[in-house]
């Protein structure tokens, strides 16, 4: 989370310098005056799982085929933030001077992981959840009045994410070697803030956004890694640079 804190400080300082800089207003490529405009975004992503455990999550795993316990009792389950990145297109529709709708479909490369600590430390394991996602966000952007070459805004919206190329467990896999798998498609809600910065021929927009998945992402499978978990939710912090 330290990286996210540093990005937030840089973001605020960058916007503050822009706000108080005194110069002639830039044209901004006429982006705000048109009903439609297009662009692209680069995104840094940090995501992690929120894990709701079952009441008996500490219980060792019993292998039905071997007729014995194949793991020690669990002592901890958790998820740490994992970095990633995304590239998206941007399409904007102007509703009025202070309100616009936009969508930023794109490709996301961001792995997540869950760690399992056991009473026997030799069994400790980290299970990555590998997926490349295609995302289809739709959001509403509420903008302030323009001051010099600066315009602040807040945004809120929803998005649908679909995994491509995700790995799945084979039917005959050893449960101890199994993967922790997620549902391939899910929805999320997101909120954020940012500032439009106007240059002569284009507009640049740094933005910080929080998103949380809706529903349970966990694929329920009889493995040592899915059984202790009742619900998985994905939490994501995104820092974006948009150009239009």
In N-to-C order, the SSE pattern is HEEEEEEEEEEEEEE
Main sheet makeup: 9 strands, antiparallel
Helix content: under 10%
Structural class: mainly beta
* Silhouette: elongated
**What would you say the CATH architecture is?**
Beta Barrel
Which CATH class is shown? Answer: Mainly Beta
Report on the structure:
The protein is mostly beta strands. It has a single domain, classed as Beta Barrel (Porin). Helices cover 8% and strands 54% of the residues. It is built from one helix and 14 strands, in the order H-E-E-E-E-E-E-E-E-E-E-E-E-E-E. The protein has one helix spanning 2-20; strands at 36-53, 62-63, 68-69, 74-78, 82-96, 99-103, 106-110, 112-118, 125-129, 132-143, 150-164, 185-198, 203-213, 229-243. The strands form three sheets. Strands 1, 5, 6, 7, 10, 11, 12, 13 and 14 form a nine-stranded antiparallel β-sheet that branches. The radius of gyration is 22 Å and the shape is elongated.
Quick structural overview:
This protein is 8% helix and 54% strand.
What is the topology?
Blueprint: H1 2-20, E1 36-53, E2 62-63, E3 68-69, E4 74-78, E5 82-96, E6 99-103, E7 106-110, E8 112-118, E9 125-129, E10 132-143, E11 150-164, E12 185-198, E13 203-213, E14 229-243
Antiparallel strand pairs: 1-5, 1-14, 2-3, 4-8, 5-6, 5-7, 6-10, 7-10, 8-9, 10-11, 11-12, 12-13, 13-14
